[in-house]
């Protein structure tokens, strides 16, 4: 077994709005925040679970919403937050594509390092 066979590629997917000059994208970090909101019902709780300040999480959400021109969260003050339908769709597509690409990358990497 080759030393290289223990290595693994990591795929990083981003969803962007090509009609904006913003650097904000829907990527792994925002996906994790959204999953946290879905699981906890709170942006604050999601941020804390990631070791992030609520103010930073709020800024990331707002920047991404502005860049994508899509509302990601419904916010209800002290009652928490929940994902919008658009966010649920983006998140589901993001997770499915990332999983698919990751499997393909691992398979391709394995073939390449094995010399096939």
UniProtKB/TrEMBL annotation:
**What PANTHER family does the record point to?**
DNA-BINDING TRANSCRIPTIONAL DUAL REGULATOR MODE, TRANSCRIPTIONAL REGULATOR MODE
Q: What is this protein called?
A: ModE family transcriptional regulator
Q: Which residues form the signal peptide?
A: none
Give the highest taxon in the source lineage.
Bacteria
Write one Gene Ontology MF term: DNA-binding transcription factor activity
* InterPro entries (alphabetical): LysR_HTH_N, Molybdate_resp_trans_reg, WH-like_DNA-bd_sf, WH_DNA-bd_sf
Species, as recorded: Senegalimassilia anaerobia
Pfam families per record: HTH_1
Limits of the HTH lysR-type domain: 37-87
């Amino acid at each position: 077994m080759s030393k290289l066979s223990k290595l693994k590629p990591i795929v990083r997917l981003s969803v962007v709005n090509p009609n904006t000059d913003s650097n904000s994208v829907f990527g792994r970090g925002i996906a994790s925040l959204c999953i946290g909101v879905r699981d906890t019902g709170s942006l604050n709780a999601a941020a804390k679970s990631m070791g992030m300040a609520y103010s930073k999480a709020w800024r990331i959400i707002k920047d991404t919403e502005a860049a994508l021109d899509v509302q990601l969260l419904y916010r209800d003050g002290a009652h928490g937050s929940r994902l919008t339908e658009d966010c649920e769709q983006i998140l589901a597509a993001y997770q499915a594509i990332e999983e698919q690409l990751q499997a393909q990358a691992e398979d391709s990497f394995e073939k390449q390092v094995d010399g096939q």
